[in-house]
User: Fold these one by one.
Assistant:
Number 1:
Amino acid sequence: MKKYFFGSIATIFALGLSAFTHIKEKPQLTDLYWFQISNQYIPGQAIAQSDAKFLVQSVNPPIGTACSGTTYDCVAGFDASQVNSSNQLINDGQIPKNVASKKDY
Amino acid sequence: MPHLWCMKKTFLTDIISALFILLFVYTATSKLIEHATFQAVLSRSPLIGTNANILSWVLPILELFTTILLFFPTTRKFGFISSFILMIVFTSYITYMILFAKNLPCSCGGVISKMTWSQHLIFNIFFTGLAAVGLSISYRNKLFIAINRDSRTPE
């Protein structure tokens, strides 16, 4: 049994870690600029300026249009440093601070 | 003295295999839990594209299979071979992504996906080296036993 000790500990530890990783994060209570995202962007991917249409600036995200999936960003929130005075993303390299809803198309 | 050295080597392979078990079980379960996202990220990769669906299942299954090989001392050598090959493939993929598609997010599981591409490359090189050490020790252990057996044959 001794020879399986380290392997068993590692397996238990890994399973525990992966379980903790997927606890849903609490929503941020900060003011964000919410955008409707067109085209297919996966979480963590930078959004092109032309694919982000400004919706509202608020703590709570808007519902968005046709956001009923789990794969691609649909309504995404950006902070003030990522948005210009015309409520557009400052460039094509901005990654959302929060994704409120997703879509599958 | 050789017995002590052999014990140290066994301990070292135990530790290295445990580290790989930790890595592969964690990343494989993370990939399977968030399978839809993992598949979507893979499909955006210029290297993978249309094979994303198959690969999104094959990769975590391969990682878990390698874990089983590493878990049992009798199959550990094959586990190290499999780990080494997997790490070489992952490291090559990351190198390609750094050179040609740096703007895409990493398709890795769990907290590892939070690393930058450069951090991930260093992390993978470290584990590739670790797999090489484990493999080397496994081969040397076999050689040591073979020499001992030869020395016991009557002249």
Note: The interface with chain B takes residues 3-7, 9-11, 13-15, 17-18, 21-22, 40, 42-46, 70-72, 93 of chain A (CB under 8 Å).
Number 2:
Amino acid sequence: MYGWGILKTLGMTLHHFIMTYVGDIQAWLQRRRGLPAATPGRAGIFTIQYPSERRELPERYRNLPFFVIDAQTEQLRCTACGICAQICPVQCIWIERARDPETGRPRRYPLSYYLDVSLCMSCGYCAEFCPFDAIKMDHDFEMARYRRPGFMSARDLAKPEAYHAAIHPAGYAEEKKGQASEPPAQED
Amino acid sequence: MVGTLGIPIDFPTEVWERLQERFPGMLRPAEPPELGDVDSYPEAREHRMVRAVSRSRLMNRPRYEGVLVHARHLLPVLRFLRDELGYRYLANLTAVDYPEPLEQFPPHIDVVYHLFKLSGGGYVTLHVHTTREGSILPSITPEFPAANFQEREVWDMFGVQFEGHPDLRRLLMWEGFDGFPLRKDWREAYYEEEHKPYRSRFPHGGSPLYAEDRTPYHANIRVSGEVPQDASSLNEEDFSLADRLLYERMLSADRDQDKPLKTEEMILNMGPHHPSTHGVFRMAVRLDGETVRHLEPVFGYLHRNHEKIGERNTWLQNIPYTDRLDYINGMTNNLAYCLAMEKLLGWEIPERAEYIRVIMAEFSRIVNHLLAAGFFSNELGMYFTGALYALEERELVLDLFEGASGGRMMFNYMRPGGVAQDLPTGWLDQAKALVHERLPRKVRQLEIFLMDNEIVQARSVGVGVMTADEAVAYGVSGPVLRACGVPYDIRQAEPYGIYDRFQFDVITRQGGDVFARVALRFDEVWQSLRILEQALDQIPEGPIQSHRLSPSMRIPPGETYGHIEAPKGELGFYLVSDGGANPYRYHIRSTSLLNLTPLSLLTRGVKIADIVAILGSIDLTMGEVDR
């Protein structure tokens, strides 16, 4: 029958509309019981009411890089090897290796480390290729600013190891396992 | 006896090589026979041709594919390949600039043609050399319409004139732009060094500088060879040339001299904004009343010289950039580029990684096809209902992508030799639930929602019809090609990865119209779900990466054309390596751009409201069109 398709289509939209409210009532009941409200994949619209509701970010979610402050030494883990500056596709990492003032030999920490956060494409290569687990990708995505932040130093972007362990539980466990099995890197 | 292709046919390769070693430069193949001679070998023709192609090693560079053809034999050879041997599908046409003399060649520009058979079985590469100054080649567009945009792009980017091209305007840059950006001696604004990583970044640091501080903006615009001191000295006339050529073309093309009524025609510009919310695109339309007489697409508003960036980057640095081409299908872009690299590297991929790649690629196809169909409702003016229903399902697939790769659109997930990370725990169960329970139900709903709707049918059946022969000649690919009844799917014609292990059908539809193109996308979603069911069941445990990657990874010298069946069609990467850490040439056979080649043909004579429906049924992403 001509027009049956249109009726089906309209019925579908109506069903979707009603299911959205049914879902909303269910979510409201969930919230009253203190359970997480957002259930992606339910019927109807499943929009999350950000910022009052928040989606749980997957562990591998990546935003800007941050620099891990080691729990034992309380220093940046970075050894200024420069691999991150090499692999960075947009070349937004500027790094200068510290030198011993007397001998002039390179030291294993950065003299200066700058990251142009307005250029960073969040590809995660620096974290992936860092041999010392010194860079990790952050989960903080609320970065709106009134001014261009531009160059940020490693100190500005540093976060404690406990934070890294909290947002990357599986990755952190693997890292610890790897450290236990591998001999510590030789000092040069 | 000697073939047209400049190398001896039926001549043992070793003997030929020994002779050349012994008498360098003194022996050369006899005069290439004219077309008539080639035609006079009816029986052995195919046999000889194929052997000639596989044996070629012309430049003194390993793995230089294909054969070298003199410009004056190009058309006869192409005709021969097309008409006699069945290489009907001109997939890719691009160029490589060699400003330094190679071992036996002076500085030249090498124009490369890749041809395929629709029955599968490898490709044929032809190389034609032309000089860097005043380079002129015969245009093949009159006989191979598929070359239209590609020749224009080569003219735009390399400055190779194609004699006989009906409309040789620049494709991506504006007329009057000075220089040819993909030549090796052309330097972009904010030029810093030939190759990344830039030396200023490590270990001496220096003071960090913003790019715009390093090179002031105004000093980098060049028009007609002069470098103006500031932007105010640019003449408006310099920029108006672009439109003058376009409008001349608009007024002259497809003129009907015997029109019974001398009605006045008008030129209407659709764009450059989002004519169908796809990106910044412009269509200049010549209208007679509401009927389209001629349509000319205008590109380049999103052009960022991706290929030049790719040649500055190291091999690995390009992977996140490919995400930004067709930003709906980052996964398949990654995959195509990694497959091309692996072809040059000769790497084997671990089993589990192959499965992960197939799973990601098929999810990507589902997302793309649902979006294409959903946004098609948008194109027809059913504002956003269908699109948002499609986006709901896409969100769920993106959750999966994000869980595995960390990005919802910019995945950076594939690597040469495997994938970046293994799937997280619980990922497969989540994916299975989606594939087995939710997606079939929702896809069916969306299919009924769009395809059974009489209004959609009235707007799309019989609109924008393309025949199978036209589709092949114009070089369209993917669902657009299969909707014309051509069963060409690279997953089955030339299975890459492990596609030969899965049961699925290549769906075709016979209509060739807008309806067939959209309906075919739903058919393909069902096939993708079939593949996913098998892949999610069979995926083994094991390693996901075969090699330890180094940031300054080098690739052995050679060239290759790697292509996959991306959701929108054939996505190819033509890579030339000179053995360094950066690609020497990095060309993308852009699906979206080349599927637009017949747009002018499809829209001739339709009503203006149908233009957007036709455009939507082709399914394009401007990030890939303009690159």
Note: The radius of gyration of chain A is 24 Å.
